[in-house]
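quick one
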Amino acid sequence: MRLINEFDLVVVGAGIAGLTAATQASAQGQRVCVLEKSAGPGGRMATRNKPDGSWDHGAQYFTARTPEFRAQVQQWLDEGLVAPWREPLAVWDGEQLSVSRSRERYVGVPKMKSPLVNVAEKLIIFYNTQVTQVRVENGSWVIDTHASQWRAKKIIIALPAPQTQALLAHDCEAYALASAALMEPCWALMLEVARPLQLPFAAAFVNEGVLSWLAHNNSKPERTVGEHYVLHATAEWSRAHVEASTEWVQAAMVEEFKRLLTLWLPGEILPAIQPRHVHRWRFARATKHEPAIVAAWPEQGLALAGDWLAGGRVEGAYCSGRAAANALLLHNTNSAVECGLS
Ligand SMILES: Cc1cc2nc3c(=O)[nH]c(=O)nc-3n(C[C@H](O)[C@H](O)[C@H](O)COP(=O)(O)OP(=O)(O)OC[C@H]3O[C@@H](n4cnc5c(N)ncnc54)[C@H](O)[C@@H]3O)c2cc1C
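structure w/ flavin-adenine dinucleotide:
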């Protein structure tokens, strides 16, 4: 027999948007639970931990512009869960490298997901729990998973747009909104080089070829010693090869890395490059999104949150989660303006 679990609010997704929404609602006295399909929190603020090393293979760093997120980041800094990442970054345009350290960038320590692991510890979260459908029955939300059923007066869906769409009935406004958003894939390669590379920067935005970004993971604070690099392919290349085998993708990305190193380190013999892991982010970034911060129907007890509504980055996802809780619990639908992201 299926278990039925009752809460005031069910949040679907334990990325930064869902965890922020759940924290905000709990602080307002709601009985909240979070349902997460993976084995842990963090979503795309992810770290791959393996015996052969550790790599932040999703979000690389974050910035903090809004008063709300600045206050949150300050709290994480005080708690030692986040640190500034002040290493030089380069931009490669195909001919020239421009290196700078201009912007304030932050990372979780010792892993990108560390602040979210800390937030998650204070919440009721059911992991390995994939929501398959949400619907209204007798004035309550019914949330189905493979094994159990949850009921709640209110629900916040904090997932990438295509995964949000997949849960909703086709005839509702929320479904139409999620369907209109476009999210692009990203292939990520995690590798190790046999000896340090003498590059004058720790990471680079690449505006030519297959890659869009590469970073020396161990240049981030409190990472273990090692020569671990993360490479991201462009959205166009990832889309074109989204169904390619991981072996093929790995080989193509390593070749591209070597090509760039040969340009950046002319005359040097390159160290051995050992590809370790490949990850396909099917819904990495929103390319077309509503600049709404949150989409809420307080009278129906429904809100959608996530980066796709709020600029496609960590800070936007945080603001979106906060705004979703406020919209449902305080009927405050003006959160976009308050969060300063509008
Ligand atoms: C390769 C890459 C690089 C990036 N680089 C940066 C960067 O440098 N700076 C920056 O600010 N942002 C960056 N981003 C974007 C940033 O990671 C996201 O904006 C942010 O993490 C999104 O948070 P979220 O909570 O909206 O969604 P997610 O983090 O995607 O959280 C959604 C959660 O829902 C879970 N889930 C999905 N479906 C279900 C279901 N049916 N039932 C239950 N749970 C489900 C997922 O497992 C996940 O944990 C990057 C993203 C990627 C992929």
